[in-house]
Amino acid sequence: IEAILAGNIGEPPLPHLSAVSGNTFFICELSSHQLDRLCSSPHIAVLLNIVPEHLDYYEGFSEYTAAKENITRFQNDSDFFVYNADFPLPRTIASRTRARLVPFSAKGPVQSGGYVRDGTIVFAQKGTEEEILSCSEIPLLGSFNVQNVLAATVVGRLLGVPAHTIRSAVRAFRALPHRLELVGTYGGIEFYDDSLATAPEACLVALETLGSDVQTLILGGHERNLDFSELGKRLVSSTVDVLILFPPTGKRIWDSVISNRSPETQVPKAFFVDTMEEAVRLAFEHTQPGKICLLAPASASFGSFRDYLDRADSFKRWIREISTNPPKSSNRV
Hints:
By secondary structure, the chain is of the alpha/beta class. It has helices spanning about 30-35, 60-75, 90-95, 145-160, 165-170, 200-210, 230-235, 250-260, 275-285, 310-325; strands spanning about 5, 25-30, 45, 80-85, 100-105, 115, 120-125, 130-135, 180-185, 190-195, 215-220, 240-245, 270, 290-295. A six-stranded mixed sheet has the order 3-4-5-6-7-8, sandwiched between helices.
């Protein structure tokens, strides 16, 4: 299948129009801002989930959700809506569309769509079931990526891509940078770049994926009026014991940690920084060899950085630079 990946992922679709054929598929990642003013929807719309974001721009979460719903609002009964049936908002939006519904689920079977059965991704259609691949074959970190592969599998099968081709593509797939990317091991510390984790939910998923080896977490950034209460609660009960916090949301995240502690709870050590150099130096000083330092800010990057790419590049650059000239006096715990 001739296909072009475009949209919010970094490549505008319009410059490609003059060089494509009538058989070309455009696969577009669409942000709420790109969807907001649209009066048409794609032939196949895919919705993974919706969590609060961009609340510095939208008046509230309901307005943000309404913008996202444009991905299926203008579909008709010849179109397909592929959605994550494990979450309530996609199910609610599915109840309002005119498109043909194709759910997927990592938790239980669906009659027509994709689901996980005994650790294997299965595609069901017209009373038949087809095993695609084992979840253990997915080379991407995190259980959330099972949901991503389910969505991709469903779309592939709707377009007639054979199961063996999907299986080969998934096995060979490598994540894009800044998505739980292992930067490397320096001074015995594993550094992970998840700069694209710009919402608290994404940070929580990163912590769940990497587990108890995460000792140091770099958080904070641009204010988007997001709710950090669940993040604060989880950090109190986690094994993370060093928080490195960027303004302005770093202060709110720390306040959430403090408000969720009990008298007998030991909270992580907090360091407030303004530059990535400070953050990385503190990470080297306070992270034990064999442990993980994770950049998963739960906030957008604007203000201190140009964008999430600039933030990630700065993180990597200072890791490399400081690793060649580590702090003379170590305060590692």
